[in-house]
Design brief:
Helix content is 62%, strand content 0%. The chain is built from five helices and no strands. It has helices at 5-12, 29-47, 51-66, 75-84, 91-98.
């Protein structure tokens, strides 16, 4: 099962490339393979027409890069995740202005 181009772009494309934008984070080979496996599962769901579920699985794979065992994170950890998705949010007021 190949990775869907949408999910591949989310991983490495210069204008998305979320894996490249985690602050101070370098992935090991095993971590990278886990992301690929999750993206393959998301691609499978996309081919069956369940695009919303595919997007949720894709997002989960990026969440698990920094927080594999956490179901919840604090605001500073959430800010790191937003930085990977190219949002520059400074504090609660910045978050409210952005979203």
């Amino acid at each position: 099962m190949p990775i869907n181009p949408v999910h591949f772009a989310q991983m490495i494309y210069p204008y998305k490339g979320y894996l490249c934008h985690f602050p101070n984070r370098h992935l090991s080979f095993n971590e990278l393979m886990e992301v690929y496996e999750n993206q393959i599962a998301a691609s499978l769901e996309r081919t069956t027409g369940r695009t919303m579920f595919a997007d949720e699985l894709s997002c989960l794979s990026f969440w698990m890069v920094n927080h594999p065992n956490n179901g919840a994170i604090n605001f500073s950890q959430f800010n790191e995740l937003l930085t990977a998705f190219r949002f520059q949010v400074k504090g609660l007021q910045g978050f409210q202005a952005e979203f």
